[in-house]
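Sanity check. The docking grid for adenosine-5'-triphosphate depends on where the pocket ends up, so I'm generating a full predicted complex first rather than guessing from homology. Inputs follow.
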Amino acid sequence: MATDVHRPVTTKAAHAVRVEGLTRSFDGRPVIDRLRLDIRPGEFVALLGRSGCGKSTLLRILAGLDRDIEGTVLVPRRKAVAFQAPRLMPWKRVWRNVLLGLPGKPERALAERALDEVGLGHRTTAWPKTLSGGEAQRASLARALVREPDLLLLDEPFGALDALTRITAQRLVGELWQRRGCAVLLVTHDVEEAVLLADRVLLMDDGVIAHEQRIDLDRPRDITDPRFAELRAGLLRRLGAEAA
Ligand SMILES: Nc1ncnc2c1ncn2[C@@H]1O[C@H](COP(=O)(O)OP(=O)(O)OP(=O)(O)O)[C@@H](O)[C@H]1O
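Predicted complex below; grid placement will be based on this.
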């Protein structure tokens, strides 16, 4: 029988995330198979892997959205998640969307501050349908930030954006992470994005973390730096080998 041992840890802990022996099966088939993962407080980790290898499943488990698991999952109480689709409620103005689901009666100013932080201070009273794709994604980020997370979970947040908007959004996430100091787990298909943003890149395969690569490059990172190209090429080679 599956056990649920999803417990919060405090930010003073040595780890923002501690996962041990995590298994998640669908129809008797383990998609995640005795996985182990540690993320330090304030660390930026990117998760890569072929389509269907279980990245989103892992992220949903860390977010507390899937508790039908075996193993140990320790995560901070304050955590927030942003998905590829911004998931804004069309009948609520942007600032109300940002506060959605917060307990009590949160002040509108809280939403306005978060929207300011993502460069959307001028659209607080807009309706979601009037936002561009990039703006909607920023609103979704503001909704995550307003929770003051110790752990920010991002599931391909830039996947649906055009190339230019994507670059701006990546830069924004890098800045927010440095300012906020929260741990981040970013699920992405984009090796360059992973090397650009992460302290550590994990490759997932066969239900486990099959490889990890530390990214010891100064920030802000320069994609024309030969060491950047080397790290990207190495990760692409490994991903290719796993897909073969
Ligand atoms: N609710 C579910 N019921 C049955 N199978 C599921 C369910 N959710 C996920 N799966 C299966 O688990 C596997 C992993 O799915 P998951 O979405 O985690 O992969 P992923 O690595 O995030 O893929 P992608 O990169 O394409 O988004 C897939 O084979 C998927 O079909």
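Relevant for the grid: Confidence is low (pLDDT under 50) at residues 1-5.
Also worth noting: Residues 163-180 form the longest helix (18 residues).
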